[in-house]
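Example with several molecule types.
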Amino acid sequence: MTRRPIVLQGVGRLGSAILEGWLATGAVDPADLIILTPSEKPAAEAARARGARINPPLEALAEARAFVIGVKPAKWLEAAQAVLPHLAPDAVIVSVMAGVRGETISQGYAGRPVVRVMPTTGVAQARGVATLWAADAAALAVGQELFEPIAETVLLDDEALMHAATAVSGCGPAYYFAFTRALAQAGEAEGLSPEAAARLARATLRSAAAGVEGTEGLDALIDRVASPGGVTQAGLVALNENGALDRAVQDAVTAAVAKSTELSA
Ligand SMILES: NC(=O)c1ccc[n+]([C@@H]2O[C@H](COP(=O)([O-])OP(=O)(O)OC[C@H]3O[C@@H](n4cnc5c(N)ncnc54)[C@H](OP(=O)(O)O)[C@@H]3O)[C@@H](O)[C@H]2O)c1
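Resulting structure tokens for the full complex:
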């Protein structure tokens, strides 16, 4: 039985990360990959070296069972025009675009089933997070098959919640990086060299991330570090004085939800 290929359209920051994750885990056999890219990309070339087809004649798309949209939301409709006449009617459209609704994508792809996926670029190391939503069970299964090997997946049953999931996990890595930068700056202000402060802050982020690998609750993890009346507890009290930290994080997520909602209108 011939296997039907997977098409990846767009090998930018996220498209490259997805491709790297698939190649590293073997989640998708490179021989089953068709990649569409206007310019040469290292991740696509690595896939080509292992058997993927790059920009083949568009007739090759007729065999595809899944078509992953990895272009920017402003480009997707234009990018759809060229490929649409060549796709099989049952090809599942997998969109990683922020903010474009499933129904809109399905209309742009002549009624084909759609699964929306909001991944982080950690998929490159098979350590991503991906939120999935689909109205169609078969489309959801395709999304799970493509992303479970490279991400922790969270399934939503309400598409409207994609905004909240985007604001928490799509944007989240940048929040942690911004916090890490602030931590390094604070260390510098207390006399550490810029290099020592940056290394300590970054290594601490990695170390803290290792701590959440298990199933222990977040309060218990905090308690492991912060003994009553101790140094860390003094820091934590100052960090969240009058709920300042909780409020700042809530404001960030609320603002991101509002922006995501505005962009999808
Ligand atoms: N970056 C993230 O962390 C992230 C997270 C979640 C979701 N997303 C979503 O992922 C999508 C891509 O974002 P990105 O950050 O990866 O953007 P990006 O780096 O700008 O990548 C977009 C890619 O699309 C390619 N492209 C444009 N027109 C095309 C066409 N007609 N056919 C094939 N490829 C085409 C571009 O190719 P050229 O380079 O040759 O112009 C570019 O490499 C967006 O919809 C975004 O909402 C991104």
